[in-house]
Amino acid sequence: MIKKLRDYDFTLMITPVLLTAFGIVMIYSASMVLAVVEGFDSSHYLVKQIQWFILSMGAFAITSMIPYRNYQKMIKMIVLAIVLLLAGVLLFGSTANNAKSWFDFGPVSLQPAEFAKLGLIMYLASVYSKKQSYINELYRGVLPPLILTAIILGLIVMQPDIGTAAIIFLIACSVIFSSGIQFKHLLLLGLLGALLVLLTLPSMITDERISRFAGAYQPFEDPADDGYHLIQSYLAIGAGGLVGEGLGQSVQKLGYLLEPHTDFIMAVIAEELGFVGVVIVVGMLAIIVLRGLFIARKCQDSFGSLLAIGISAMVGIQAFINLGAISGMLPITGVPLPFVSYGGSSLLVMMIGMGILNNIARSVRKTEEEPVPVHKERDSESNHFPIGGGKTWVR
């Protein structure tokens, strides 16, 4: 039993749990007034997030014990489920914040796009790990998986959920780059992607999206409308100073900040706990991402390496987009801060990802401690860590 526990990566066990527990405290602080205004008890969002936390911890425990290679065997079922869920939510989903992104089952709501992130990571990691022997062949090795990726992105854009689509696109880019494809193919894919964006841009431009860009980059031009929410975020961040106003003492959460318990929870953290609180949260997120990349580097299996890279990218990219929105670097897109923001689907997916990363870490430690037989399907490329540009990082 002790030996089994020793195989776990305690950094990736403790850090997400501590970050989520901290998030629960901040969710209560940020949402108690909002909950009362909406007609609920002040602990409404706190109780719901604790319930999701318990469920997520169960999922974390289960996925940390399931051998990660099993997902490769189930990849067709996983992909089919993702496509059906994304198509189903367009037909039967509930609308919230002008997007048809949710299945509403009474007290429980699920967002299929969150699960699509992890499913697509599994798919791309599985396909590109099998194509390592001919990864430099554009039409045979690189392009086929991008067709399904484009379908998934299209279904999410149709909701419309541009923020999640952007995250999934960047995650896909991370996995594709890390698969070891040649630089000229990367450049060609970049040009094709840019062309696709230019072709679809006219249909995606709406007054609401234009106002989001104006609010992000020229907030003081229209402080009462387009720039209002970002200015409130600036006020919260500025008021916090070094150590903050104190836990529970935020003023901006009292009806000024948009979604203080979800999109703008870091602004509340900055106001109540100051620069110190922000550094702690960002530092813990960085630890999770860097630890995931370290595990990817150590893993001797291409599928495991790409899977770990994708999960690490999911956490890092989502955190970057959320922090970019509250600081005015990026338009507000409604992306939650991983582990910290209120949201059951996001937390559940993140904890499943942490469980899978822990299982990869267990496999790495077992491989380092005792020799393992070479799997029949693995080739010489499996013992290298791909870093893109047609090269591999040789052990």
Q: How would you sum up this structure in a few lines?
A:
By secondary structure, the protein is mainly alpha-helical. Helices cover about 65% and strands about 5% of the residues.
Terminal CA distance:
31 Å
Strand tally: 5
- Count of DSSP H/I helices: 15
The description of the largest β-sheet is:
3 strands, antiparallel
Write down the overall mean pLDDT.
Answer: 85
Low-confidence stretches: 376-395
Account of the 3D structure:
With 395 residues, the protein is mainly alpha-helical. It has helices at residues 2-7, 10-37, 44-65, 69-73, 75-92, 112-130, 138-142, 144-157, 162-178, 183-204, 207-217, 228-240, 265-298, 302-327, 344-369; strands at 94-96, 99-105, 108-110, 385-388, 391-393. The strands form two sheets. Strands 1-2-3 form a three-stranded antiparallel β-sheet, with helices on one face. Strands 4-5 form a two-stranded antiparallel ribbon. α9 packs antiparallel against α14. The longest helix is centred in the C-terminal third of the chain and has 34 residues, at 265-298.
